[in-house]
Write a structure and sequence with these properties.
Helix content: over 70%
Strand content: under 5%
Order of helices and strands: HHHH
Distance between the termini: 79 Å
Structural class: mainly alpha
Length: 108
């Protein structure tokens, strides 16, 4: 026996379909309002002291970790494709990072 498909008009009017969507929307809306109230209503700059420490980390060990991560990714890409052009990405990332830091005025 062939079953009849569920009519679309009943799907749109079904209470079981509307409540989870409405509840999800209200939950997201309330989370946005709480975040807006918690972080945006203050006049203080919450990231004020992090700029110097971020630059110090990025110019020190952070840059080395990026280089090492790019080297591992390039090595895995080389193993998978056997294309030596993948290893050019190491040089490209190193040059890009140094150019960005130069334009930001943090390195000489």
């Amino acid at each position: 026996m062939k079953t009849q498909p569920y009519p679309l008009r009943l799907c749109l009017c079904d209470i079981h379909w509307q409540w989870p969507l409405l509840l999800r929307f209200l939950l997201c809306l309330s989370a946005c309002m709480i975040a807006l109230n918690a972080f945006a209503s203050s006049g203080d700059d919450l990231l004020q002291g992090t700029d110097a420490s971020w630059w110090a980390t990025f110019n020190g060990t952070g840059k080395n970790y990026l280089y090492a991560g790019e080297g591992v990714i390039a090595l895995l890409g080389f193993i998978k494709t056997r294309n030596p052009g993948v290893l050019v990405g190491i040089v490209v990332v190193a040059v890009f990072i140094n150019i960005v830091l130069y334009f930001a005025g943090q390195t000489g």
